[in-house]
Write a structure and sequence with these properties.
Length: 396
């Protein structure tokens, strides 16, 4: 072991030793040990009393790693990247959702009949009857982007698709893919697709896709470029064919997603997940109420009519607030009692639908940037809502 390695192992033994870290920092820079700098010193650099030498070394390491990553992206990504043995332990392992544990089905999704019908035809049936679809020149696979206001069931609906399809379902967040080590995010992308392909028919669900697919001019850190390129190469099937591999992305901000992601053969179908309709709202309210002690004559039909444009998450919050009211009363010495209609109404009163801001933004895109009719389902939704409720919401 040389001196530097001795110092490193000393710091590993007492990772909060600022004096030691201060001595080590310039030596690590000198030796270009960028990854070691991040692993050993990044946390220390965050402390308010961190010595300048430590902070500088971490900044320098970050900048250098970003450069290296950009250079790596210039390398063709169609071939698997060689993996340094030491790095293997830092890579993610991807496994499909456990069928027994995912119990969500279309029946558990309240309302949303149009969306269910579309998903049946585009996703569920092609997987169930591949031969029939092939006969008519259609195959399962490709990319679909679910979009809509936050809290309205994109993630939930994707789980229901998993429940309906007899396919391996991989539920992946961007943070499962991104990795600090140079080249590892790309390797994670390759691993993910390779694992999914090996278990076809398979569905790959990537939540919050905008974190990866943001328009390049919106991205502050360009070091995602190589990860994005790796992802697009896999999506194109440049490496291997993608038959019977369906990739579903979800996002609140489809307009922020780089158009490279929306080219034919990539995420070329956009499906709008609207705020729940009255029937869906009632189903969601009932779903959250059945888990709690309630009066038997609760009228959720009326409440569902009085919560236009509420998201699923808003409705969950409403029920939660009603329960808190009762609980506060009980803790203050009151007798235990079930949740009543009055509790629900009181909880409803101060609330506003959280989807309004999103819908106002969407309206702008529909009116001024609906190239290729990408957002026609939103336009249709807004028109429908506009006819019955014109003037009620500020933006119509
Ligand atoms: N149509 C629906 N039927 C039943 N529950 C719903 C529905 N839409 C939303 N929810 C509820 O709202 C919660 C938030 O939805 P989620 O899928 O996380 O929203 P998003 O991914 O669009 O932000 C879900 O966990 C679910 O409990
Ligand atoms: Mg979600």
């Amino acid at each position: 072991m040389n001196d530097l390695d001795l110092l490193i192992s000393a710091l590993q033994t007492s990772p909060n030793n600022l004096a030691l870290a201060q001595v080590l920092a310039p030596q690590l820079v000198q030796a270009s040990r960028w990854v070691d700098i991040i692993t050993l010193l990044a946390a220390l650099a965050q402390q308010h009393d961190a010595p300048a030498a430590i902070v500088q070394s971490v900044d320098q390491a970050r900048a250098r790693l970003a450069e290296l990553q950009a250079q790596a992206s210039a390398v063709r990504l169609a071939e698997p990247l060689p993996v340094a043995h030491d790095d293997l332990e830092h890579l993610a392992n991807f496994a499909p959702l456990n069928k027994e544990r995912n119990t969500v089905r279309f029946a558990d999704v309240g309302g949303m009949d149009t969306l269910k019908a579309v998903a049946q035809m585009k996703i569920v049936q092609p997987f169930a009857n591949p031969a029939l679809f092939k006969k008519y020149g259609k195959t399962a696979g490709g990319g679909i982007l679910l979009y809509g206001p936050p809290g309205c069931g994109k993630t939930y609906f994707a789980k229901a698709i998993a429940g309906e399809c007899d396919a391996a379902f991989f539920n992946v967040g961007i943070h499962d893919i991104l990795n600090l080590y140079v080249g590892n995010s790309e390797r994670n992308v390759q691993r993910l697709f390779a694992t999914a392909r090996s278990q076809r028919p398979a569905i790959l669900f990537i939540d919050e896709l905008d974190a990866l697919g943001r328009k390049r001019d919106l991205m502050r850190h360009s070091n995602l470029t190589s990860t994005i390129n790796a992802f697009l190469a896999e999506l194109d099937g440049a490496v291997s064919d993608n038959d019977n591999l369906l990739v579903i992305g979800a996002t609140n901000a489809p307009w922020d997603i780089d158009s490279a992601f929306k080219r034919p053969g990539r995420f070329d179908q956009l499906l709008f997940v609207p705020p729940p309709d009255a029937k869906a709202r009632q189903a969601i309210l009932d779903l959250h109420l059945t888990k709690r002690p309630c009066e038997t004559d609760l009228d959720t039909t009326r409440l569902s009519q009085d919560t236009e444009q509420f998201s699923g998450a808003d409705l969950a919050a409403l029920v939660d607030e009603a329960a808190s009211r009762v609980l506060t009363e009980v803790l203050g010495g009151g007798a235990e009692r079930p949740i009543t209609q009055a509790d629900l109404l009181a909880a409803r009163k101060p609330m506003k639908a959280s989807t309004q801001e999103w819908l106002a933004t969407a309206r702008n895109y529909v009116e001024y940037a609906n190239e290729g009719g990408d957002y026609s389902d939103v336009a249709q939704y807004l028109d429908g809502a506009g006819q019955s409720k014109r003037g009620k919401f500020g933006f119509f």
